[in-house]
Specification:
The chain is of the alpha+beta class. Helices cover 53% and strands 17% of the residues. The chain is built from 23 helices and 22 strands.
Length: 809
């Protein structure tokens, strides 16, 4: 113990003699380890940790694939999947999102609700903490029963176990609480209540593809075998029901894989960027330790000559590496915590509902081990060399030491070139993503002045569809509830001060939501069987509010949709006219979309990029909002002033006039239209942060070696100045040495950037490879910073007079 304490004290004293080098080493460890640990923590939570469900490896997500669309399945098709799958699956379950407004608990509040089939609970092995799940008997009898999430139970009902059996009010109707889900069960994400689907067991509905499907594989069944079983079922359905199930197939994925598919590419690229930063940090550490080894080689050789053994010399280096590693680890922990918090604030969509990312000390220890190995590898070399040096040569500073110096110099130059290449590669990748966002921001999404439009979402409580209820009966009940509330809401919105127009729609335009789509027929214009059209439900002032231009005919008016259950008229966009009518006259055309009835086209409007600026315009048809059989709606108000000033008035209007309708997601439309590119923006921001870190580390490395070379050549510089060399000549001499590292490093980095660009296009949302402008900007930008890193230490060396330089040596 005394020996260890002595070694640590000696190491601390030795390190204090070179504070600049120690600070640089600690900062390098902090940046390299902290950055990678933060991103790995998120990567681990989202992609590596298993979902907290029983035997989760057997739970799969099954998606209907029917080109050109894919998604949920119809009730009749689901029943056949379940009945014809034999013993391949232990359970089938399905769910569909349900608008849910909870009242009677201190005001109206929106909760995320889902309607689920009884088999849903069997798929997840009955994750019920209190009471029971929804049963087939509940479904068959049309019971209004509900299962609460653990969070809702605790926050709204005080974790009262006596809530079981009591009624709560959802969407204006009473539902009996029969169970509370287990605390860890959160599927679908953020669900607050689960209600029965209330589907008839013998439903023959094949047109309503609304049910998302999950299933549990039987114990001995592999994913490949399950896919083969489903292929047989869907082939039979396509042959038996060609009108509804033509080209039908099913895609089966493990649930964890399906849930993380949208983030896998982005997080993998960010993890790769973090690894590159760690490599640069390790190269920087290696360079720093080689510098230190050069300054200490004489000291260690002298200590060896005075009797210090190899073990003693190695213990000294180990103690120094340990102190640097501890200081770097502490700094890395602090930096990783700050970076992780900022990352989750910047991109809350990266936060999984099952595992909250917390600092992963396993990753921290692994990264620290890598850095410690670098410290030891390049720190032990001088101790080893010193222990093998002839004491006489050591005391005279013999030629052997000069040979080692040349070898170490070459090693440092190579390490700096590696740092430069990796930094340029990361900078080019960040530049590629920034250029992608620049291009997307220049795309016209079809809306005029979205910053002058305030949007919000609200839910209108609709009556439940009961087993055996005719679609027409339910639609009449929906219209009786929905139409008067929409009329009154629009009238009140128009009274707000500063409001030019107001609109209500099923989705917000250019927000990435897309809406519904379905088959299309046009009388007198034969179309392919797979012709599709997106349809939206909007109020008369929708186009005026969002600034969507009228191309021909008229817009919808207040009389459209009155007294009818289904739309009688519609307005189409220009993409519809171009694709299905050959660019001809659309006015008066009779189309069949959404249902079998004919609708008359009364107007043509401009295109809107509903799914984002990188997606093409799609054929669309707009129907009157009165005919919308949905309760999840959006409102928008256009003002000539600051729309944020309208928020308090809008909230007050809704609270006073519609106390049972909660308002949420209030935001200016320019923020909403940025949603489709949000993940690109996050990827760009984080890659830029990693690239900046790499630039700093590479600049430090380059500065360090030029400063060391200038110090080693002080005598030479003094002699050259004595013989008349100018300051410009000395600068050129040192710049030549710097350019010998900068040019190869930048060239290698640009070549690496071209290879990296393919990954960015396929995994991180880049539109195309970086153009010459981006590469030149990166090359010249980095080159300027690198040259500055060369000039600063040279200028410092030139401040010393020739006589002083010669005298010091």
């Amino acid at each position: 113990m005394n020996t260890l304490l002595h070694d640590l004290r000696h190491a601390l004293h030795s390190l204090r003699a070179q504070p600049g080098l120690c600070l640089t080493a600690v900062l390098t460890l902090m940046l390299g380890i902290g950055a990678l640990t933060a991103i790995f923590t998120v990567y681990d939570a989202v992609l590596l940790k298993p979902l907290p469900f029983a035997q989760v490896d057997r739970i799969v997500r099954i998606t209907r694939v029917q080109p050109p669309v894919s998604g949920p399945i119809s009730p009749a098709a689901l029943r056949e999947w379940r009945e014809r799958s034999g013993s391949a699956f232990d359970a089938f379950g399905a769910f569909v999102e349900q608008t849910a407004t909870l009242t009677g608990t201190g005001g109206a509040e929106r909760v995320v609700g889902y309607r689920v089939t009884p088999g849903f609970w069997d798929v997840f092995s009955q994750p019920i903490a209190l009471g029971r799940g929804i049963s087939a008997e509940d479904e068959g009898r049309g019971e209004r029963v509900v299962v609460l999430s653990d969070g809702l139970w605790r926050n709204h009902f005080g974790a009262d176990p006596n809530v079981i059996g009591h009624d709560i009010v959802i969407n204006g109707e009473s539902w009996r609480v029969i169970g509370v889900a287990a605390p860890a069960f959160r599927y679908p994400a953020n669900a607050g209540v689960w209600l029965p689907t209330l589907l008839a067991a013998d439903s023959e509905d094949r047109g309503n593809n609304s049910l998302a499907v999950v299933a549990r594989l039987a114990p001995a069944v592999t994913l490949a075998q399950a896919r083969e079983v489903m292929r047989g079922i869907t082939d039979w359905q396509a042959a038996t029901f060609p009108e509804q199930h033509a080209k039908l197939s099913a895609r089966i994925e493990r649930l964890g894989t399906w849930l993380s598919s949208n983030l896998r590419g982005t997080l993998s690229m960010l993890l790769g960027a973090g690894l590159l930063v760690l490599l640069i940090a390790c190269a920087n550490l290696a360079s720093l330790m080689l510098t230190r080894s050069q300054t200490r080689s004489q000291e260690l050789a002298v200590r060896s000559a005075l009797g210090a053994g190899r073990a003693q010399l190695i213990r000294t280096v180990l103690a120094e590496a340990l102190l640097l590693a501890i200081a770097g680890a502490v700094a890395a922990v602090v930096f990783a915590r700050v970076l992780l918090a900022g990352l989750l604030r910047l991109a809350p969509e990266l936060l999984p509902p099952w595992h909250v990312p917390a600092l992963d000390f396993r990753a921290l220890l692994a990264m620290l081990a890598v850095a410690m190995s670098t410290l030891l590898l390049f720190g032990l070399l001088p101790a080893w060399w010193a222990s093998r040096t002839d004491p006489a040569l050591a005391l005279r500073g013999g030629a052997r030491g000069q040979t080692q110096t040349r070898g170490q110099t070459r090693a440092r130059r190579v390490l700096v070139m590696v740092e430069i290449a990796l930094a340029v590669c990361l900078l080019s990748g960040a530049g590629q993503l920034i250029d992608t966002l620049r291009q997307l921001n220049q795309v016209d999404n079809g809306l005029r002045d979205p910053e002058h439009v305030l949007s919000a979402r609200f839910d209108v409580a609709l009556p439940a569809m009961m087993p055996g209820m005719d679609d027409e009966v339910w639609t009449r009940r929906v219209n009786a509830v929905l139409a008067p509330q929409i009329d009154e809401l629009l009238a009140r919105l128009a009274t707000l001060p500063g409001v030019e127009s107001a609109a209500i729609s099923d989705v917000l335009p250019a927000s990435g939501e897309g809406g519904w789509n379905g088959g299309l027929q046009i009388e007198g214009h034969p179309l392919a069987d797979d012709a599709l059209v997106d349809f939206h439900f909007v109020s008369p002032d929708y186009f005026r509010t969002f600034g969507i231009a009228l191309k021909a005919g008229r817009m919808l008016d207040a009389n459209d949709g009155k007294g009818t259950l289904v739309p009688g008229v519609g307005v189409v966009n220009q993409a519809f006219v171009d694709r299905y009518l050959g660019g001809g006259d659309a006015l008066g055309a009779q189309v069949h979309a959404y249902d079998d009835s004919a609708k008359t086209i009364v107007g043509v409007v401009g295109n809107v990029r509903q799914l984002g600026p990188d997606e093409p315009e799609r054929p669309e048809i707009y129907f009157p909002i009165r005919n919308a059989p949905i309760g999840n709606l959006a409102l928008a108000i256009r003002s000539d002033g600051d729309v944020s000033a309208l928020q308090p008035a809008l909230r007050r209007l809704m609270r006073e006039s519609f106390p049972d309708i909660p308002l949420y997601a209030i935001a200016p439309m320019d923020e909403v239209t940025g949603t489709p590119v949000q993940m690109r923006r996050v990827s760009m921001s984080l890659n830029s942060a990693f690239a900046t870190t790499a630039l700093i580390l590479a600049s430090i490395g380059l500065y360090g070696i030029i400063a060391w070379m200038a110090a080693q050549r002080r005598r030479e510089i003094g002699i050259r100045q004595s013989f008349g060399a100018t300051r410009a000549h000395i600068h050129r001499l040192m710049l030549r040495s710097g350019l010998g590292m900068i040019l190869p490093g930048v060239t290698a980095g640009l070549l690496g950037a071209l290879a990296l660009s393919r990954l960015l296009v396929s995994h991180a949302g880049a539109l195309d490879a970086p153009g010459p402008r981006v590469l030149l900007l990166v090359a010249f930008g980095f080159g300027a910073i690198a040259l500055a890193a060369c000039l600063v230490p040279t200028a410092r060396a030139l401040r010393v007079s020739p006589s002083e330089a010669l005298r010091d040596d």
